[in-house]
Design brief:
single chain, alpha/beta, Rossmann fold, seven-stranded mixed beta sheet, 5 helices, globular
Length: 163
Amino acid sequence: MYLHADNLSDTADIARAVAGFLRTGDVVVLAGEMGTGKTAFTQAAATALGIDEPVTSPTFNLVHTYRGGALTLHHVDLYRLSRTDEIEDLAIDELARTGAVFVEWGDVGDDLIGDHLEVRIAVGEADDQRDFALRSVGRRWDARWDKLRSALSGFMVDDWGDL
């Protein structure tokens, strides 16, 4: 599914819509270049889940966990990791047992992450615009996919090639 956000508010709306379909065990893999808004997407999703504390990039700590919302949110960053064993040591599947997991730079370890929702983000023509490609990897999102598409229909665009 391809989406376009004209501004940061639209991007937050897309993240909030995704958050509305999250359940314990879900993994959301965020991919995109530096500065495309992976952390901002996670922040908006956390707010939608009712998490009040500031959500920051876990680049140096690798994992931040936020409680107090509708779900526990684990925010993981694979940017500095390159070896399979480093990624496996984060035990993303175990984190998912206790909440939802958002993985920035998750495409680095894509083959090590089970079923997930992939969210690719690219900067659009203007600085505040973002283009998104969402896809379900595995079967976990199958039962929710049509409802998610419906919730995001206002942002849908025809196929485009950069993502």
